Amino acid sequence: MRPFEQIVTEYGPMVLRVVRAVVGPADAEDAWSETFLAALKAYPRLPGDANVEAWLVTIAHRKAIDAARASARRPVAAADLPDRPATSGRPEDWDGDLWDALRRLPGRQRQAVAYHHLAGLPYQEIASILGGTADAARRAAADGIRNLRRTYAGAAGPAPAGTAGGDAR
């Protein structure tokens, strides 16, 4: 087995992108940390032929659910709001409109888009994480991309090849 540090180095950025898309930028780093703490504990028992990427996304999915539940229980402070929204911050390469568009997607669509288009998982793996069939995961991702194209103000023109519909991984 490879050293766990190599696993973190190789898959850490992908896991962070996934949890950012699923739970939002505020809770992403905590979910990322929790994912790799849980993975570190379970790594010695991981079969040698296991798909490490799918295994980590499965753990991240569960930690994202935990983070969403915890976030729903926390009170929301609303004092001293800024006059206008910030134009920088986490995630660094997203503007606020993209996160807003992702956040407005139904949960299953948001997760399918994140797991397929950010993590690169095939639909069969997504189906095993979310439950259901590969066709249902493909449909959720396609619907999510269609909704993003319709609602995201930053979208200009058609998306690059392989981002929806025809990509049957």
Describe the structure concisely for a colleague.
With 169 residues, the chain is mainly alpha-helical. It has 7 helices and no strands. It is globular and about 50 Å long.
Overall mean confidence score, pLDDT:
82
Biggest beta sheet summary: none
Tell me the number of helical segments per DSSP (H or I, 4 or more residues long): 7
Q: CATH superfamily assignment?
A: PhyR, sigma-like (SL) domain
CATH topology: Butyryl-CoA Dehydrogenase, subunit A, domain 3
Low-confidence stretches: 157-169
What is the global morphology? globular
The level-1 CATH class: Mainly Alpha
Number of domains: 1
- First-residue to last-residue Cα separation: 27 Å
Determine the oligomeric state from the structure: single chain
Structural class: mainly alpha
Question: What's the total number of strands?
Answer: 0
| Elements, N to C (H/E) | HHHHHHH
SS strand fraction: under 5%
CATH architecture: Up-down Bundle
Gyration radius over CA: 17 Å
Q: What share of the residues lie within helices?
A: 55-70%
